[in-house]
Specification:
heterodimer; A: alpha/beta; 7 helices; 56% helix; B: 4 helices; elongated
């Protein structure tokens, strides 16, 4: 049982940006009984997000590579400790995304994240993106900038 | 997962096996995988996210893009 973590949660936790503290807090709350769940596509998006910072002249390539190596090491540790599960992208997830894309006119990545969150039966979908448009059916979307975020998260965690 | 063979001191292997018996670690593979992640961090010279944040604050030439903005733009590139 767990919570789905959108890519912007990881970017915010690993980069010196606004809301870094709450993203860091969130990653520290994950446990084997209440895991963070994301998909392999998240890793690809983080690669591209860091490369964009290089292209925009925010950091040099060496710093971006160090950040990615650190990020991958932490993902490895978190998966070993079973506080994070990284779901592989399968053909069936891609096929299920078709419906999300056509019925809700989603970007491919939004559709894929939504499909994997639904298939993983997560209790919450956590994203900083208040415009996330994936159809998550009954899964509540929580934004860490919500002043009641910590209370809501802990309440869900304690219910297991 | 792929299996590999590695060279390791007999004493170190006995210690790992004792840690498995004591329930501290689950398997030799787990010990090696965990060791790799720690080793990479040690080589990079960053132990935790706080140190990474400090490193990036020193390195950045301009403020990073916000998390929502950058991931939205990555998804819009498709």
């Amino acid at each position: 049982m767990g919570v789905y973590l959108d890519t912007n949660i990881f970017y915010t936790a690993y980069c010196p940006v606004a809301n870094n503290a709450i993203a860091d807090w969130l990653l520290n709350q994950l446990t084997p009984k209440f895991q963070g769940i994301t998909c392999e596509w998240t890793i690809l998006e983080i690669f591209r997000a860091l490369k964009k910072q290089v292209n925009l002249g925010k950091i040099d390539e060496k710093a971006a590579k160090i950040t990615l190596d650190f990020f991958l090491s932490e993902l490895g540790e978190m998966t070993e400790e079973k506080v994070l599960k990284i779901i592989p992208i399968t053909r069936s997830a891609i096929m299920a995304s078709r419906k999300q894309i056509f019925e809700h006119n989603l970007y491919a990545a939004d559709a894929l994240h939504a499909v994997i969150a639904l298939a993983s039966q997560v209790k919450l979908f956590i994203t900083f993106d208040s415009d996330f448009r994936g159809n998550l059916e009954i899964i509540p979307i929580l934004n860490p900038i919500d002043p009641a975020f910590k209370d809501k998260f802990i309440a869900q965690q304690e219910s297991f | 997962m792929t299996s590999i063979s590695i060279s390791i001191d007999e004493e170190l292997l006995e210690w790992i096996d004792q840690l498995i018996k004591d329930g501290i670690i689950n398997s030799r593979s787990e010990a090696v995988r965990g060791g790799i992640y720690v080793y990479i961090k040690e080589k990079i010279g960053l132990k935790n996210r706080k140190e990474l944040k400090n490193y990036l604050q020193d390195q950045q030439k301009e403020p990073f893009q916000d998390g929502v903005e950058v991931i939205r733009s990555v998804r819009g590139e498709e």
